[in-house]
């Protein structure tokens, strides 16, 4: 019994020793851990905190679908076609060797488009050659290497020497497809998603890229878009263009766009409607915060904003009517060119507006190439190209005569051959005798208008006498003309709009009265005739009537975000009787017994009013004549006003061989009223 007790005590003693040793070991470990934590917190705390702070958050944005464009009847005009795309988002300061290695992997399955391969330069090939040949050390002499080691030669100087010594035949061994890929990767801005290829990406290329993303750092597959048009080349110039992914921001507007938060490779509208309404169509880009460590490596990312598709535009243009107008212009140009003495004829312009709102229903410029027998669209010429418009402005002359007090309603003048001492003779196309303001418009009397202008410039016609006028008063006439939109910007909204050119020959200042001194654009004439048609309100020409939210379903248009209200730029300061008098004169032009446009409009159901015009001009040093017409219909409740100009219609010295402007106007009116009620 005593022996068992002894053994038991001995065992308990050994257990206590073991437990003591274990507790001591645990104590030592905890002590080491505490000391270590103390060292980390006290000694190295600042260093680790700095490493944490060294991570950087960079917002990276990517484009969203651009807004669509519809016509006034909600027919889709411009839309996006989805395209498979392969993109690259580079880290901060990627190493050239790494980019070349990545390029080789990509070149194994991706074939770049010809336009990208053509952009590869000799310099690109030389950079790749250097990377594949130990940075070109073999090209340097030992003395040159020594000078570099002694810091007597700079890197850029050695680099230049290397480039010069690479032989052209050595560059022929470099794969151009590889070079095109490397060029794209090496020029991509850090953390910015750059399109590597988004045109003609094959299903195989897309699939291989998607399956090997983990082996291709920075590479991703996505869906991009390109603009498409439902109406072919109809109105194509005015719809405008969007920059490609290669173009990015226009160089001449780089500061403007970057100040607004755009990135260099963003696609933006670069002309006309696409450019003017870029902020509407662009949408809100998707934004992802990219988190990088101190080495510039991406360690995480988070979506900040999913983005929002661009809003849609609803134009004022009726695309079916627009297509009809373009077809009419082309047919009449070809028909006119077949006639004699039309050697320099090749262009026509038409602008059709809604008188009460200023909304543009159709506008076009068509140019015919006699060699290729093809037409090109020159619609911007309706507000960038100014002409001597001729007698279409005589309504403004009569109204200015009323406003300045040199003419009363119904006042008569003798239409005669005017002879000035030392200046030759001036006359209408025939001597008309005594006529009043209405007949002067109906028969298009030049003399009535000249005498009116001379009196407005403090002069008076004296047969065979010297023409004495106050030349400063030309600006008075121009001031009143401006109220109708003649000689000033129409405010259509495009920066390249011209206000025309002011004639400077004092001896012929009176020619302003018949549209033979200053030049005006077709858009200015359209604004002028619209002002007369609607009762004296100069309306701002508008191409967009609504902005709507994007609706990416099959339900059609989204809800209205903004409805563009008509804008009155100014109201003509005159009594209604004066304006109605000129309106009546314009109706006699188209319906009167001696109206210059009677044969074209007297029997038309839509009851038009307007004014014809011819004017001297020059092209290639040859004297020619322009033909024009400005009018509206119906007379008592105008729904449409038009301005038509056919410059250089026929050569000087010949009787007018055709009346293209009148025929085009007649057919445009018909086309409009065939598609709209109220024309019968």
What can you tell me about this protein's structure?
The chain contains 24 helices and 22 strands. It is elongated. Helix content is 37%, strand content 21%. Helix 17 (394-404) packs parallel to helix 19. The strands form six sheets. Strands 2, 3, 4, 5, 8, 17 and 18 form a seven-stranded mixed beta sheet that branches. A six-stranded antiparallel beta sheet has the order 11-10-9-22-21-20. It is of the alpha+beta class.
Mind sketching the topology for me?
Layout (H helix, E strand, L loop, with lengths): L1 H42 L1 H9 L2 E7 L6 E2 L5 E13 L7 H12 L6 H5 L3 H11 L9 H8 L5 H11 L2 H4 L4 H12 L6 E4 L5 H9 L7 E11 L6 H4 L14 H6 L12 H5 L1 H5 L3 E7 L5 E8 L6 E4 L3 H19 L9 E7 L6 E10 L4 E4 L3 H4 L9 H11 L7 E4 L2 E3 L3 E3 L6 E4 H6 L3 H11 L17 H9 L39 H12 L3 E3 L4 E5 L11 E4 L4 E4 L4 H16 L6 H4 L7 E11 L2 E12 L6 E12 L8 H15 L6
Parallel strand pairs: 2-8
Antiparallel strand pairs: 1-6, 2-3, 3-4, 3-5, 6-7, 8-17, 9-10, 9-22, 10-11, 12-15, 13-14, 16-19, 17-18, 20-21, 21-22
Helix pairs in contact: 1-2, 3-9, 15-24, 17-19, 17-22
- Derived from helix and strand composition plus strand pairing, the structural class reads alpha+beta
Total helical elements: 24
| Estimated radius of gyration | 39 Å
- Estimate the strand proportion: 15-25%
Could you give a short account of the major beta sheet? Answer: 7 strands, mixed
Question: Quick one: overall form?
Answer: elongated
The count of DSSP E runs of length 2 or more, i.e. the number of strands, is 22
Q: Helix fraction?
A: 25-40%
Poorly predicted regions are none
